[in-house]
UniProtKB/TrEMBL annotation:
Residues 29-126 form the Non-haem dioxygenase N-terminal domain. InterPro entries: DIOX_N, IPNS-like_FE2OG_OXY, IPNS-like_sf, Iron_ascorbate_oxido_reductase. Residues 195-296 form the Isopenicillin N synthase-like Fe(2+) 2OG dioxygenase domain. This is Clavaminate synthase-like protein. It holds the Pfam family 2OG-FeII_Oxy.
Length: 379
């Protein structure tokens, strides 16, 4: 029998934390400036500081209403309320080999080896709507698929295309340089994600050191994170190695830069190290729902350092780690599935350094990204 589709209803965000957290000081790109030569130049100056120094920043006035965002959160909420046995029908074939579109159940990682406590992260990934991917989803997703498609495409036209253009201007490249290697109609492994972190008890949080996900980098170009008032995201300051909390800002997107952009710029664009901590005590009692979009270059793009940027030439960023090692530089597709396979490794326990430093491809090994381990929740 078909599963009945509930009404979306409204999505109620939890109150922001009242704790005095050690917030990161991040820049904001105001897209109301976008579209004029002077405005684009100003945005490029702001963006280049963000991607070279922090790798995390905010975007506001990006022409997608809060109502549309809230509806996506409502879809995600309804998705995670359907029975587990229904969600398990949508686990991708080849999950252990790096496949990722569809439902990824919680519990694949051991976060506390003594007690055997496992992660409580559920993921549902929806690929591009460009004709390269099958779309078979639970009823709540299928019912709203046209709206989800419109939302995902809007993220390209209203957020990613401007970011790619501004980055090209900042690196003194032709303005369509990055847009041309991130075309929506060509195959790439972009996806929209609904993500649920089910809470741990205070006692369980103490056992796992109040850390839900260890420090890591994302594998693509840009990751877009919609405002989530449950404070948990932290980034590592590249200069001091201290962890800072990322503050939820009203009416903004949080954006981080990722591995592929770092490879394409010889390391000039930072692939930001970030992690997920247990929420502060006044938010510890709720589950955390995330809405994200992962942008990646088109699959056939080879991740060699851009040779035509005067900025990269002047600053000496002319080779990435693959080029320095003398190993073949992978295409985006090769890189994506190699790192996804590593990410999806089952039954890894926290602290397994052989996993944390494993070779993804010849010329690239993962690194331990913990730095300063302090998690400060109040003063």
């Amino acid at each position: 029998m078909p599963v009945p589709v509930p009404e979306l209803g409204s999505y109620n965000f939890v109150p922001v934390t009242k704790e005095n957290l050690d917030w990161a000081d991040l820049v904001t790109l105001d897209f109301s400036l976008y579209g004029t030569p002077e405005g684009n130049k100003q945005l490029a100056k702001t963006l280049i500081k963000a991607v070279h120094e922090d790798g995390f920043f905010y975007v506001k006035n990006f022409n997608i209403s809060q109502e549309r965002v809230n509806r996506q959160f409502s879809i995600g909420k309804q998705l995670y309320e359907i029975p587990l046995e229904e969600k398990l029908k949508y686990v991708p074939q080849g999950l252990d080999e790096g496949a990722f579109n569809g439902y990824v159940p919680a519990g694949r990682r051991i976060v506390e080896p003594v007690s055997g406590l496992r992660d409580r992260i559920e993921v549902y990934n929806i690929p591009k709507f460009n004709g390269d991917f099958r779309h078979e989803h639970p009823a709540i997703i299928q019912e709203h698929l046209p709206e989800i498609e419109e939302f995902a495409r809007s993220l390209h036209t209203e957020v990613l295309d401007p970011l790619h253009r501004i980055l090209a201007i900042a690196l003194e490249l032709p303005e369509d340089y990055f847009k041309n290697i991130h075309k929506y109609d060509l195959k790439s492994e972009d996806h929209l994600r609904y993500m649920k972190y089910t809470k741990f008890t205070p006692e369980e949080n103490a056992k796992i050191g109040r850390l839900w996900v260890r420090g890591h980098t994302d594998l693509g170009s840009f990751t877009l994170l919609f405002r989530q008032p449950v404070a948990a995201l932290q980034i590592r300051n590249p200069k001091t190695n201290e962890w800072k909390w990322v503050k939820p800002q009203d009416g903004t997107l949080t954006v981080n830069t990722c591995d592929a952009l770092s490879f394409l710029t010889g390391g000039y664009v930072k692939s930001t190290i970030h992690r997920v901590a247990a929420p502060p005590k006044d938010q510890e009692h709720v589950d955390r729902l995330g809405l994200l979009y992962f942008s990646r270059p088109n699959n056939d793009v080879r991740l060699t350092t851009v040779k035509d940027s005067p900025v990269l030439q002047r600053e000496g960023y002319t080779e990435n780690d693959f080029e320095k090692s003398g190993n073949p530089v992978p295409t985006t597709e090769e890189w994506t599935f190699a790192k996804q396979k590593w990410q999806r490794t089952k039954n890894v326990f926290r602290g397994d350094e052989s996993f944390s430093t494993a070779q993804i491809l010849p010329g690239w090994n993962e690194k331990v990204h913990e730095g300063c381990k302090r998690i400060r929740t109040n003063t």
